[in-house]
Amino acid sequence: MTNNKVFKLAYVLKVSSSKYRELMNMLEREIERKTPSGCLFKRAYQSLGNMQVLQYEESWDNLEKLRDHLSSANFRTLVGGFQLLSDFTQVEIFEAKEITELKELL
User: Fold this and answer.
1) Domain segments of the chain: what residues?
2) The pTM is what?
3) Whole-angstrom distance, CA of residue 100 vs CA of residue 98
């Protein structure tokens, strides 16, 4: 077990077919943008069961840097784009844990 903590910021988006291309272009630009300090990576996923459902996630090595990101202009622009181009259905912050740690919580 490692002491390195990882935090995930995950968005679940449902997009209409008329806005799909525009949202995908926005996600591509965001993923290609320079990764801020503390952000390990950014990724986008598409549901296999419903092609209109996408997930965008960022992984962070530091909760304080993630919190700083949440108050940044870039974050506000990103969320504004999600709200404009999709049914912005869910946003969650997760802390990655070893399975043994999760079992101990039960």
Assistant:
1) 7-97
2) 0.82
3) 5
